[in-house]
Design a protein that fits this description.
heterodimer; A: mainly beta; 7-stranded mixed sheet; B: mainly beta; 4-stranded antiparallel sheet; 12 strands; 0% helix
């Protein structure tokens, strides 16, 4: 089955630690995205990438980093510089070049800072 | 800049009643519009999308939305609510031009009363 997988589903971090969230897709999509979701705030874009080895900051990139070494993978690192990292993180992907290009989402990772 | 506004962060309806979730967009040209549904602790699932082929768009689970350019609206409706419709709903617009970014509303949580 084609889709997007995120791991782990739940992640606990101590203050001062960096953690990496995994996102893999087998949809052959060009573009991948990371969003942060907090109650009542909708989805806020952290980073996105439209091609391998290239990515752009979204609206709330501070304290996060990404890489795009392979088309199917787009890991997100939450660094110790992120002051309030507890949130639900969603990865998404879409093809590029069509008329509307729907975004497809993974199941999410819930990060809690202890 | 493009944006979407969802009126009403919480909506309650009785089982069997009409569901109406509101979404207004700002765009100088016809946008690409989407409605997604999210169940607790899950990713977003596409309900329907506006492709400019027809102003009335039918989606999954009996939902539909009508694109009204004069009102800059894309409201989501369902004639008869079911208990399983209880979830959070997001309206989204894809940005125009070569950058494949998506802007989401803040969401509407639908509660269905027995």
């Amino acid at each position: 089955d084609g889709g997007i997988t995120q791991s782990p589903k739940y992640l606990f971090r101590k203050e001062g630690q960096n953690v990496t969230l995994s996102c893999e897709q087998n949809l052959n999509h060009d573009a991948m995205y990371w969003y942060r979701q907090d109650p009542g705030q909708g989805l806020r874009l952290i980073y996105y990438s439209q091609i391998v080895n290239d990515f752009q900051k979204g609206d709330i990139a501070e304290g996060y980093s990404v890489s795009r070494e392979k088309k199917e993978s787009f890991p997100l690192t939450v660094t110790s510089a992120q002051k309030n990292p507890t949130a639900f993180y969603l990865c998404a992907s879409t093809s590029v070049g069509g008329a509307t290009d729907t975004q497809y989402f993974g199941p999410g990772t819930r990060l809690t800072v202890l | 800049a493009q944006s979407v506004t969802q009126l009403g962060s919480h909506v309650s309806v009785s089982e069997g009643a009409l569901v109406l979730l509101r979404c207004n967009y700002s765009s100088s040209v016809p946008p690409y519009l989407f409605w997604y549904v999210q169940y607790p602790n899950q990713g977003l699932q596409l309900l329907l999308k506006y492709t400019s082929a027809a102003t009335l768009v039918k989606g999954i689970n009996g939902f539909e939305a009508e694109f009204k350019k004069s009102e800059t609206s894309f409201h989501l409706t369902k004639p008869s609510a079911h208990m399983s419709d209880a979830a959070e709903y997001f309206c989204a617009v894809r940005t125009l031009g070569g950058t494949y970014k998506y802007i989401f509303g803040t969401g509407t949580r639908l509660k269905v009363l027995a």
